[in-house]
Specification:
With 187 residues, the protein is mainly alpha-helical. 73% of the residues lie in helices and 0% in strands. The protein has eight helices and no strands. Helix 1 crosses helix 7. The longest helix has 28 residues. The radius of gyration is 17 Å and the shape is globular. The mean pLDDT is 92.
């Protein structure tokens, strides 16, 4: 899924108030953060062409090692287990949203998946469906994610009625719909 959808899904699933919602947003973002940082460095600082960044560097062993760490079910599951053991709502929201992100990625990445079971295994699941690749059913996956994002935005607006939260989730929904539009135009 696109990162804005991950944020909305995580916040809807685990955010109940300001602290847990913030934790869920950060947990939902963290599995993608290394990609944003490394791609931004490569694109804007090193001026490496986009086709090289996303066609070669993304799949390189060095980048995949980083992705294996921040997308590890083992590490995120340990954090969730610790949160449950000590009854820390914020840690539960953080780790739960991270695991939800990883589970969605596991199901929706065809040939660009991650090593979700690192450090136990380097195996990468190749899902039969993709959220962005029209050759693997993105034509129906994308709209379903968008509809769910809209529904979760409405849930979050009711749960957190302050204008700041409404603006935040409205902007995330707009970013999700804009990104989905881009996937359809390019792929």
């Amino acid at each position: 899924m696109n990162t804005p959808a991950h944020l909305m899904f995580g916040a809807a699933a685990f955010g109940r108030d300001r602290p847990t919602t913030l934790a869920a947003l950060f947990g939902a973002l963290l599995p993608d953060l290394s990609l944003y940082l490394m791609a931004s460095w490569a694109l804007f600082v090193k001026h490496i062409p986009e086709r090289v960044v996303f066609g070669e560097l993304y799949f390189s062993d060095n980048w995949q090692r980083v992705f294996a760490i921040d997308n590890s079910v083992i590490l995120w599951g340990t954090a969730l287990g610790l949160g449950v053991a000590v009854k820390a709502r914020v840690l539960i929201a953080f780790a739960g949203a991270g695991l939800l992100h990883i589970f969605a990625d596991f199901l929706l990445h065809h040939d660009d998946g991650r090593q979700h079971f690192w450090p136990v295994s380097t195996w990468v699941f190749e899902s039969p469906v993709s959220y962005w690749d029209s050759r693997h059913h993105a034509g129906w996956i994308g709209p379903v994610i968008s509809i769910l994002s809209l529904l979760f935005t409405l849930v979050l607006w009711r749960r957190l009625p302050h204008w700041g939260w409404r603006l935040t989730f409205g902007l995330l929904l707009a970013a999700e719909l804009y990104t989905l539009r881009g996937w359809f135009l390019h792929f």
